[in-house]
Amino acid sequence: MSEKDIFVLGIETSCDETAAAIVKNGREIVANVVASQMESHQRFGGVVPEIASRHHVEQITLVLEETMKQANMNVSEIDAIAVTEGPGLVGALLIGVNAAKALAFAHRIPLVGVHHIAGHIYANQLVQDMKFPLLALVVSGGHTELIYMKEHGVFEVIGETRDDAAGEAYDKVARALQLPYPGGPHIDRLAKQGKPTIDLPRAWLEEGSYDFSFSGLKSAVINTLHNAKQRGETIQPEDMAASFQASVVEVLVGKTIQAAAHYDVKQILLAGGVAANEGLRTQLQKQVEQLPEVELVIPPLSLCTDNAAMIAAAGTVLFQQGKRATMALNANPSLLL
Q: Which of 22, 186, 230, 268 is exposed most, by the fewest CB atoms within 10 A?
C-alpha cells in the first residue's frame, strides 16, 4: 500500500523576507514564494525592525495567495502548516505566527512551530537525503554555529559565536569599505579581484573549542583602514576584502573539518545566508575532499537565504514525529535550538 503524500505549507517572516512555500513529503518543492524588502532597508545600512514588520503585514496575504496559486492547490489539501516561531525580530515573527494560526484555526489544520536554524539545516534535505551522524555549519546574518545531528530533529550545538556572527562581521566590514548593504555578496565579489596581502588575525580560541569569534577581526580591519588613512596611505579595497574573507573562511572551514573528524560524521551540510559565499563554498569543497568518507551538501543559492521551503521541510519532520503547536504559539525571538 502506498503511503499518502504529505503537503506542508511553510511560512517564514523572521527578518526581512516574507516567504511561503508548499513542500511535498519534506523533499520536493511544489511552490516557493519570497517577497524581499532589501531595497527598503538598503538606505539605512541594515534591517529596521519596524519597517520590516510593516512590510510583512502588507505582503503576507499576497505571498500566501501566490503560493497556493503556484501550487494549484486549495488550503483543504494541506496536511500541516509550519511556521518560524524564532529566533528573529519579534515584530516580524509575530506576523508569520499569527497568519499561520489564523489559517490553521479557520481550516482546522495541524500547526507546527519551527526553529529558524533547523529550517536552514533542512534546506539541504530539499537537495539530498540526510545521512546521520552529520555536522551542519550554519552561517547567516545573526548566527554562526556548528550543529551535530545523530538523527532527525535532534540538534546538538557544539560550537557557536561568542560575539559577532560571520554575517554581522561582513556587514560591518562592508560599511567600513563603503560598500552597500548587505555586505556579504559585495565583499565576496571584491575579494575575487584582490589578493589576501594584509595580515589579519584568526581567532582559534582555546584548544578543542569549536566556538567562533569575529569581533576582533572586524576591529582589526577598521583599525587598519583608519591607521592607513591617518598616514595618508591607500589600501586597495579589493585586497582588504580578500584578506578579511581569507581570515573568516580559514576559521570556519578549519573548525568544521576538525569537528567532522572528531565526531566521525558521514555528511557535512552548509546552511544559512553566508552559505552563498563563493569563497567559503570553494574552500570547504577543497578541504572535504581530504576526508574520503564524508559527503558535502551545499544547497543552491535560492535556498541559502531565508525562504519558507526550508521551514516546510523541517516542519514535515516534526509533523511526522507527532509534534504539534497549540493556538498559544507565540513568537520567541531568543528561541533555543
A: 230
335 located within any domain? no
Q: What is the pLDDT of residues 18-29, one digit of tens each?
A: 999 999 999 999
Same domain, 152 and 107: no
- Check the annotation: does 213 bind a ligand: no
Q: Is the dihedral of CA 282, 238, 178, 219 positive or negative?
A: positive
Residue 153 labelled as part of a binding site: no
Q: Is 88 annotated as a binding residue?
A: no
Residues 89 and 111 placed together within one structural domain of the fold: yes
Flag whether 140 is marked binding: yes
Contacts of 211 by beta carbon, 8 Å cutoff, 6+ apart: 159, 160, 161, 162, 205
- In the sheet that holds 295-297, the strands lie side by side as 156-160, 144-149, 134-139, 267-271, 295-297
192 plus 145 within the same structural domain: yes
* Beta sheet of 28-36, edge-to-edge order: 28-36, 17-24, 7-12, 80-86, 111-115
Three cell numbers, residue 21: 512555500
Cα 50–56–61 angle (5° rounding)?
A: 155
Q: Is 184 annotated as a binding residue?
A: yes
Length of the chain: 337
Q: Is 79 labeled as ligand-binding?
A: no
Residue 337 domain-assigned?
no
Cβ atoms of residues 210 and 252 within 8 Å: no
Q: What is the pLDDT of residues 183-237, one digit of tens each?
A: 999 999 999 999 999 999 999 999 999 999 999 999 999 999 999 999 999 999 9
Please check whether residue 293 lies inside any domain of the structure.
yes
Pick from 273, 156, 168, 260: nearest CA to 213:
168
Average pLDDT over residues 133-138: 98
Task: Evaluate whether residue 326 is within a structural domain.
Answer: no
For residues 152 and 284, membership in a common domain is answered with yes
Is 139 known as a binding-site position? yes
Residue 141 assigned to a binding site: yes
Residue-number span of the structural domain to which 292 is assigned:
131-298
Q: What is the CATH number of the domain that holds 90?
A: 3.30.420.40
